[in-house]
Amino acid sequence: MNQPSVTNWQASWIWGAGCESPRNEWRCFRHCFVPEGPLDQAVLKLTADSRYVLYVNGEQVGRGPVRSWPFELAYDEYEIGHLLRPGQENVIALMVIHYGISNFQYLRGRAGLLAQLDRQQLPLSSVPVTVSDESWKTAVHSGYDSSSSRMSCQLGFTEVFDAREWDENWIHTGYDDSGWESATAIGPAGMAPWTSLVERDIPYLTEEPVYPSLVESLRAVRPAAWSAVLDLRSIFSPDSSDHANVMEFCGFIATMVRMDQAAPFTIGMVDSARTHARISIDGQWLSEDHYVGEDPERYITFELDTGEHFLLIDVTGSSHGHGFHIGFDSSASFTVHAPAWGPEYASSAPFVSIGPFDVVEIIDHQPGRLLEVSHPDYAKTCGATSPLDLKTLTSWVRPIDKQLVNLNDVFTSCVWKVNEQIYPVPSAMQQAVLATPHAASIPVYAGMDTEIVIDFGRELSGYIAIELDASSGTIVDGYGFEYMSDGWRQHTYLVDNTFRYVCREGRQSYVSVIRRGLRYLALTLRETSRPAKLREVKLIQSNYPVANVGGFRSSDPLLNDIWAISRDTTRLCMEDTFVDCPAFEQVYWVGDARNEALVSYYTFGAKEIVSRCLKLVPGSSYQTPLYVDQVPSGWNSVIPNWTFFWITACLEYYRYHGEEPFIVDIWPHINRTLEQYLQLQNDKGLLERSGWNLLDWAPMEQPREGVVTPQNMFMVKALRDAAEIGDTAGDLAVADRFRKAADRLRDAIDLHLWDKERAAYVDCIHADGKNSATTSMQTQIVAYLCDITDGERKSTLEQYITDPPERFVQAGSPFMLFFYYEALAKLGRVDLMVADIRKNYGYMIEHDATTCWEMFPWSGYHKHPKVLTRSHCHAWSAAPAYFLGHQVLGVQGLTPGWNKVLVAPQPSGLAWARGSVPLSDGGRIGVSWRLESERMYLRLEAPAHIEVLTEAPAGYDMDVEFVRLQ
Question: Mean pLDDT throughout 694-708?
């Protein structure tokens, strides 16, 4: 979809010697040179696999590249002439992180860096000044621990950094890099897997410092004595690094615990990564009845005698790539080590693996098989009481690579507190969060660590920065989370949102390399020999660069707050693509982005990010012609609705921006995938498939097998939207065929999926032919939105939408409310929409939300009464920022590119409202209205070239003041 680079690349791809794709390698590069002549037009072009941070003469210049398919890898361009010193030594320095694994925003390629500094001579001419080649120097960054664990299946790795192991001056001139190796040239631009290089198509992200609001709490804490994070997926399926699909496996991990004396011993699993592990001690399987804690935290305590004990853990189950956290604690001293089967185990991790006895890769839209758990050696292992019992099973026993076991388990240390004491926060400690030269002294408690919780006051996304004065060896553990209430914290299970910084002596600063989302930051200082002075804590907020062009204010302060958190949610979820959330995933989910784009149009008018997102989707065609639900990703997963929403989003992008070349380019890809979906219709003419058939987080029936009703309905809309796109692209024959296919599918839905007794559409037909037991509002809303029926049935649907029956399943997420609000707007019941926004989003505001939640507590997804949602910042939920501009201000585009606009305000109980809506060309339409008796006074501001029509709300006369902007 993207245009290949026309850059005259003379640079070579480079890396260090060794593995082509090392796991979690943090590698540094330096190149010193003395330029001749003026360099004010010097442009550095570069890209890397997987991510880089660029410095020029010690100054950070940028981060990148943007997420890309490896076969369409984006490169960046930086004007750096102002940083260069002609006739003197200059240094270009880069740190490149190579993941060595696929995740939900990266596909494993191979490690590499490509860089070229050009001097621009003519508008279309440049001369290389220096290029990446074997003259560059490189070294693995020894400050970073490559055995740090994965943050989650969606993301890369946590940071474990020891400042004593690395000279921070490596980014400056004058640094002695004589001990570094010469880079290895691995090939020219255009080599595989980066066969096509494409110019970055969006602006660079912001980096703006944000200081916290306050130090929320102070505690003396003691963590569990020992803990670790295991990458079970990589242990039992090493080849799974090449993709991000779910892996099922049958096997065990084992270790030895040596007790110095008899004492109670506790095993804790603070986050079992969805693996329901069973534990055996010396052959005795521990009863599930004896565990305490709430999933996913599980703890069990029992007595252990002096000496060696064999710990066997059955981890048979599935893993998507999350870390398996396990910890041990006892009042007595103990050690943990691997069973000594041979010399090769001495240098391995303190666990061994047994198995796998079977492994299955799960691809949700392809046929699979069940995991086999009846292997006789699996059963035999279950009976083992000591390592000696496994002598006949040694072919199954393997040492575990140390890289797959992280012994710096910050998450467990922050979550599992064996002891804690709460202290009042001294006023002087607030100096740590203020932009002043004063420092806060962090107290030291004998035998305990010191934890402070910092509240940034709102959700943020970016890079943590700290400055402190501490003794050598002081450990600073950082843990970011989103929500706390009355001292209770909602932990970020399934995302290890932590970092560890080990101090050198004296004053120092550190900026996290890994992006993370949070509101609260717990900083725990461990192994301190003197009180540390915390001079500064801040977050370098980073998001897609947008201004607050859109706005909304009204006579209702609650609606104003709701609009603001919706806008802020959307901004925080705009990175190099739209993402679902800044904390848990940071993933471009294709279906989510349709709603996010609409909100973005009304708040920021952002254009390039939408185009970029839409163009990324067809790159997944090599995984499946149905297109995957998150891109670019190693997880080969399909949600049909997400592909259908993508088609609708393409049409909506054209309607907003009016770019016909975009439509012409995207049309073949839309055509290709819809042809594949049409082949999945059964003998009744309905879409029937096996796979993930999601619409909402709610207890409606949306099974993996069978006919899912809303999915069929959205396919009708997708076919109709595709037909309109086809008309614009000039392919009238295919467009007509899609319209006819939409009509046939609509008729099949009306014939087979309407239940006369319920007077409603069923949620699904199961694979066994039975209709769903549930009847949901979701299905009725989608039927109305997609114009599935007319006449009496349509009237029935309209009644359901305006007065939802209690017996129907209700919306479980704000995502579903987006479609509900679309239906209310279509019905002309904006009053009901505004009332629902006040109710549901007001509930968020009441519970201290500064951004919109992913789901509601009544969705049934979470059982814990204090858990209100999973993600506290989810852009698929930001509907109010769109609908308040679209309906209450009443601004709606009538033509592609919005050269003709309708302003039709809907008061909905408000006395006044004002705001603005961005135009696609960079301007905006300002709207201000107020009511007096039965008259509306409307004031408009708009560029002179925009034709603006106005329409008074029902029951009101309207006076219009129109200000034309030249």
Answer: 95
